């Protein structure tokens, strides 16, 4: 079980990093395009205010940060890796549910 937990955390860190490489520039560019500071790309511009993409961005950032902090704590000498994984996952899920609730149902 120990190796599966580490592998899941490692893979999710890499996958969320790849998603963020595309989602963050998309959000920044489309925001600047709305203000007219960069050329407009119509398909990109209309996606700036799509709640689904905003939710995906927020959930991806939350999980990437949580698992990144887990790795930093392990590197700092905390050896309870499974506990850190469980705490990072639980906090990420709670924050994600709260953020998605705020985006979709407030």
Describe this structure in words.
This protein has 106 residues and is an all-alpha fold. Helix content is 83%, strand content 0%. It has four helices and no strands. The chain has helices at residues 2-35, 42-46, 51-75, 81-104. The protein starts with a helix and ends with a helix. The model has no long low-confidence stretch (mean pLDDT 87).
SSE layout:
Elements (H helix, E strand, L loop, with lengths): L1 H34 L6 H5 L4 H25 L5 H24 L2
Question: Which descriptors would you attach to this protein?
Answer:
single chain, 106 residues, mainly alpha, 4 helices, elongated
Q: Uncertain regions: pLDDT < 50 for 5+ in a row?
A: none
Specify the structural class. Answer: mainly alpha
* Largest sheet features: none
Helix content: over 70%
Count of DSSP helices? 4
Q: What is the string of helix and strand elements? A: HHHH
Q: What oligomeric state do the depicted chains represent?
A: single chain
What is the arithmetic mean of pLDDT? 87
Q: Note the overall shape.
A: elongated
Overall strand count = 0
Write a brief structural summary.
The chain is built from four helices and no strands.
């Amino acid at each position: 079980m120990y190796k599966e937990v580490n592998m899941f955390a490692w893979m999710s860190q890499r996958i969320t990093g790849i998603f963020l490489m595309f989602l963050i520039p998309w959000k920044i560019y489309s925001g600047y395009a709305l203000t007219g500071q960069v050329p407009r790309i119509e398909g990109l511009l209309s996606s700036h205010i799509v709640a689904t993409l905003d939710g995906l961005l927020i959930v991806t950032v939350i999980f990437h940060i949580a698992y990144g902090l887990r790795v930093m704590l392990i590197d700092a000498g905390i050896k309870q890796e499974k506990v850190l994984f469980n705490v990072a996952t639980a906090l990420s899920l709670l924050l994600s549910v709260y953020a998605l609730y705020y985006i979709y149902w407030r």
